[in-house]
Amino acid sequence: MRLLVVGKLNGQLSTAVKMAMSAGAKVSHVETIAAATHALRAGQGADLLLVDYDLDIAALIAAKAPLSVRALKRVVRGGAVLPLDKAMALELEAYNHLFTTEDRREGVAAFNQKRSPDFKGR
What we know:
Largest sheet: 3 strands, parallel
Mean pLDDT: 79
């Protein structure tokens, strides 16, 4: 098993890592979500991801496109109680709506220009 730990190794997280290592898990550790994302994209996969609850996940989500975050919440909440085909239709509906937004165009432009996006929620 491969385990990727994100955050500080203290308290319960440290105990979980020790238990995983004693069971033969290969453990990798990074301090930030950005470093974890980089590691995963670089092909350093993980079977399990442990994230320190002290990391400010809310700030990371708040920095994303607000329309996309709202749509994701709607799809996850609504899709969880639907049959798979209906949940996928809900996801496609959200995608098609988001595809036409200013925020999508800003996200693509920011990526191409290698800068941070300035999302407006439009």
